[in-house]
Amino acid sequence: MSKSHGGQSAASQSSDPFVMDIKKIREDARKHMSDGAVTQSYSADRETVLKLLNDSLATEIVCVLRYKRHHFMAKGINSEGVAAEFAQHAAEEQEHADRIAERIVQLGGEPDFAPDGLKTRSHSEYKEGDSLTDMIRENLIAERIAIDTYREIVRYLGEKDVTTRRMFEEILAVEEEHADDMSDLLEGRE
Asked: Is 84 inside a domain boundary?
């Protein structure tokens, strides 16, 4: 499809910039191997992203702990189904924590699992709740906090760190499902 100029194609007259980019990418990959998954094209502020990830890790761990407590403390009529929902959510929050910790390591950071700082780094609070309705309400509040904070993180990351952004988008979708589940459970109790 290229037009011919004096017997030469347009492609042979100019160098292909994509080939040049590949050469540079290969050179950079060899020069900066110790950076692991973080290449020269990574444009986010890595320290900020690592802080956001570690704060989100703390949030997920606090959510796991709260859901676990609520699972074991659920009592009363219709508590079996609610307790099962709490257990399922705890497992899903643990999966989120694991994914976040893995991403921290990929970015050259260290996941902060230190118990003494979980409460201050977590976006959500650890509220026990006295009744089954209180537990559902506290979980709904925590999910709504996670939704808003993760949405802000997605917005901040934009195109600067697409992999982390997509991970948060996937986690955000599950948090929205959790909030919907808690809202449905609460609807029948108030």
From this structure: yes
Name 5's bridge partners: 8
The reported pTM is 0.80
Does 3 reside within a domain? no
Distance CA 117, CA 164 (A): 23
User: In Å, how far are 65, 137, 144 from 187, measured between CA atoms?
Assistant: 24, 10, 16
Note whether 185 and 174 are within 8 A (CB): no
Three-state SS letters, 138-169: HHHHHHHHHHHHHHHHHHHHCCCCHHHHHHHH
Residues in the chain: 190
Asked whether residue 170 is domain-assigned, the answer is yes
Question: CB burial class (10 A; 0-12, 13-18, 19+) of residue 18?
Answer: exposed
Separation CA 174–CA 41 (nearest Å): 30
Which residue from 145, 102, 100, 152 is spatially nearest to 126, judged by alpha carbons? 145
What is the mean pLDDT, run by run of 10 residues, along the chain of 190 residues? Answer: 46 49 65 59 85 98 97 91 96 98 96 95 92 95 96 96 97 97 83
What tokens does 85 get? Answer: 């929902």
Nearest C-alpha neighbor of 189 from the set 109, 145, 131, 150: 131
| 99 and 22 within one domain | no
Could you tell me if residue 8 is inside a domain? no
Q: Are both 51 and 34 inside the same structural domain?
A: no
